[in-house]
């Protein structure tokens, strides 16, 4: 058997990896710059850490497959959904949203649930969360939201005033805030939580007939959450609990699985629905649009190298295959640009060439050169149209045309009573007494760290969603309930003015 010798990154054999090149025989002699092995080793070490994700920095991932279990091909021509039994390889990354890479897995935070499907028509990414809604509905607000979840620029500590000031000035956030501060905000593990596309997408078929869809991934392990006390305790015992749980389950052949469903809405239903169906702060009622089985997602292989795969995997909701297109969801429209741009900054302009991101089908993009390019097409011409390459386009890959009309401008969206309905229904009708008590306790424990004027402003929003909800929070914070009622009766502009 041939011996394996240590080499430099250029394949040059290394004579010793225990001693630097020095002038003289003394142990502490002067080190020479000509020691190229030492220089390369230290220089690369300084560059081992790429910038962490601005959001979703802490995460875990695994490989697996998606299998179609129900034929919905009449709605979409996407080949990965073409027939029952069809299997497609996937890579799934779970994550917390707001924390840094060293933060605890059990932190109160939404969880990322991002799936990359390696299809024969290119990579298809569903970049969702464990919640079916989000805090905001316009991408312009996203940097501000994330800034409030990060650290105070002076103290470098998390700041309740920043978070609750933003939430109380952005009432559309109340549905997601209610979910976040319930026990759903602290899932027990990545295996024991659901995933959602959250956004609405278009499915279209060979006839260019289209429908609107939302994806739901329902855990086969059963939903399991932690109370706030349990989550805090777990952060001290094992801050990497969810990461370890996922790895060990797969290592022990206890493969996590999710049943995949879609909700389907016709264009006619979308025009006449009781609220904007593209508003990501709201769910489609299952009584109106029941869950339709689509398939099963199974994770059966751990990453071979965490950095190469989990850390470098790059998802973008703009990665859509023929048969799937974007919707006019304003937050989604911004994400279509932002995610790819984040990867170009963090991983480089050729992040699509990293093996975990590389399509597993033939591709001819014409994109060439740039830093770290390892597959730039060789001698093939890289322009289109071209008489030499034989590369063509096909209009059949285009989504259906959609008629639109309206004026161009920054259209402000007015706050409506409907923006509070689903948060109130979640608290009043979905949560049991124990869940209500935990939610209120979690809110009071966090909101209690904010200034009193912000406490009143936010509690008034809870009262607008549900009188019981607002009353319980007011009592927990020892606020004047009559003042809360008065603020709840005001318009948002008047409420902000009254609580400055």
What does this structure look like?
The chain is of the alpha+beta class. 31% of the residues lie in helices and 16% in strands. The chain is built from 15 helices and 12 strands. Strands 3, 4, 5, 6, 7, 8, 9, 10, 11 and 12 form a 10-stranded antiparallel beta sheet that branches. Strands 1-2 form a two-stranded antiparallel sheet. The radius of gyration is 26 Å and the shape is globular. It starts with 21 loop residues before the first strand and ends with a helix.
Task: Compile the SSE list and pairings.
Elements: E1 22-23, E2 30-31, H1 36-46, E3 59-68, E4 87-96, E5 111-119, E6 122-129, H2 142-149, H3 160-169, H4 174-180, E7 195-196, E8 201-204, E9 210-219, H5 228-237, H6 241-251, E10 257-265, H7 267-271, E11 292-301, H8 306-311, E12 324-326, H9 330-346, H10 418-430, H11 433-447, H12 452-465, H13 467-477, H14 481-489, H15 492-498
Antiparallel strand pairs: 1-2, 3-4, 3-11, 4-5, 5-6, 7-9, 8-9, 8-12, 9-10, 10-11
Rg, rounded, reads 26 Å
Q: What is the percentage of strand-forming residues?
A: 15-25%
Overall 3D form: globular
Low-confidence segments, given as residue ranges, are none
Helix vs. strand class: alpha+beta
Mean pLDDT: 93
Order of helices and strands: EEHEEEEHHHEEEHHEHEHEHHHHHHH
Instruction: Write down how many β-strands occur, each being a DSSP E stretch of 2 or more residues.
Output: 12
Number of helices: 15
Biggest sheet record? 10 strands, antiparallel
- Helical proportion? 25-40%
User: End-to-end distance, in Å?
Assistant: 77 Å
């Amino acid at each position: 058997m041939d011996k394996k010798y240590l080499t430099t990154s250029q394949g040059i054999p290394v004579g010793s990896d225990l001693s630097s090149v020095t002038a003289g025989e003394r142990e502490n002699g002067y080190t020479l710059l000509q020691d190229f092995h030492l220089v390369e080793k230290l220089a690369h070490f300084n560059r081992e850490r790429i910038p962490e994700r601005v959001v979703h920095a802490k995460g875990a991932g695994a490989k697996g497959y998606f299998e179609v279990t129900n034929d919905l091909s009449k709605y979409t021509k996407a080949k990965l959904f073409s027939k029952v039994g069809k299997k497609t390889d996937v890579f799934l990354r779970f994550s917390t949203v707001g924390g840094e890479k060293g933060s605890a897995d059990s932190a109160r935070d939404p969880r990322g649930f991002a799936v990359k499907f390696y299809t024969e028509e290119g990579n298809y990414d569903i970049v969702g969360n464990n919640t079916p809604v989000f805090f905001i509905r316009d991408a312009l607000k996203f940097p501000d939201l994330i800034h409030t979840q990060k650290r105070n620029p002076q103290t470098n500590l998390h700041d309740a005033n920043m978070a609750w000031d933003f939430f109380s000035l952005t009432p559309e956030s109340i549905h997601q805030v209610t979910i976040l501060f319930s026990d759903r905000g602290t899932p027990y593990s990545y295996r024991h939580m659901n995933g959602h596309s959250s956004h609405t997408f278009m499915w279209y078929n060979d006839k260019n007939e289209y429908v609107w869809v939302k994806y739901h991934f329902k855990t086969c392990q059963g939903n399991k959450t932690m109370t706030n006390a349990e989550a805090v305790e777990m952060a001290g015992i094992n801050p990497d609990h969810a990461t370890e749980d996922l790895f060990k389950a797969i290592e022990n052949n206890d493969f996590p699985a999710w049943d995949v469903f879609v909700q389907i809405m016709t264009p006619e239903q979308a025009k006449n629905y009781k609220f904007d169906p593209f508003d990501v702060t709201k769910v489609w009622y299952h009584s109106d649009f029941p869950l339709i089985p689509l398939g099963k997602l199974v994770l059966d292989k751990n990453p071979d190298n965490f950095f190469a795969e989990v850390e470098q995997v790059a998802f973008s909701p703009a990665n859509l295959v023929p048969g799937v297109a974007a919707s006019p969801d304003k937050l989604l429209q911004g994400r279509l640009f932002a995610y790819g741009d984040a990867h170009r900054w963090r991983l480089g302009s050729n992040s699509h060439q990293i093996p975990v991101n590389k399509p597993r089908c033939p591709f001819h993009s014409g994109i060439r050169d740039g830093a770290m390019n390892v597959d730039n097409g060789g001698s093939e011409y890289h322009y289109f149209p071209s008489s030499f390459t034989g590369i063509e386009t096909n209009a059949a890959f285009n989504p259906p045309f959609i008629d639109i009309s309206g004026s161009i401008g920054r259209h402000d969206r007015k706050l409506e009573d409907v923006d509070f309905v689903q948060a109130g229904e979640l608290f009043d009708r979905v949560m049991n007494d124990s869940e209500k008590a935990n939610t209120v306790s979690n809110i009071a424990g966090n909101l209690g760290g904010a200034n009193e004027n912000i406490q009143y402003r936010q509690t008034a929003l809870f009262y607008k969603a549900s009188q019981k909800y607002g009353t319980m929070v007011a009592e927990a914070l020892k606020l004047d309930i009559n003042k809360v009622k008065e603020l709840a009766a005001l318009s948002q502009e008047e409420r902000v003015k009254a609580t400055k």
